[in-house]
Amino acid sequence: MELRARDRVPALTGLLSIVSLALVFGAVGGVIPQSVLPRAPDSLLSAIPHANAAISATAIGTILAGVTFARRKQFTRHRYAMTASLVLFATFLVLYLYRLTLVGTTAFPGPEGVYTTVYLPVLAIHILLAVVCIPLLYYVALLALTRPLSEVFGTKHKRVGRIAATLWLVSFTLGIVVYLLLYVVY
Fold this sequence. Notes:
Blueprint: H1 9-28, H2 42-71, H3 75-103, H4 112-145, H5 149-152, H6 157-185
Helix pairs in contact: 1-3, 1-4, 2-3, 2-6, 4-6
């Protein structure tokens, strides 16, 4: 019996989600040893949050473009825009996990009142949406990438994709707010 990715989208989504979330929580929890990664110069490590903010802003643009292309039924452009969004997200995630593993989390430098009433709620929602987005993104991407365009219309790609794109946009936007609070405002 031939096993094909197109016939195993839910299983592959689950597997990829578990691996991705394990890497994220492993980096956050300090489980991934620093010794497994080459150490970049401190100047590069300190530039990563700024680069990730730019990547996030660019991803917001490519996601919005992808949604617009889908609404206009320009599906080839939609695919390119959403593929670019996934590449940007993967780049963001690799840079984020690399820095997190080597440097750890960044302490909030602002006042306690802003920390508890603004920063923590924004950060919590950003993290929750990012975690929820991972399986949704894998699912819609695998549906689209394992089928010719004519067959994608018969899947849940459109319905799940709308939810995924919305949550992804909010997550990226809140990530930029977190960046601004950590590195610009305070």
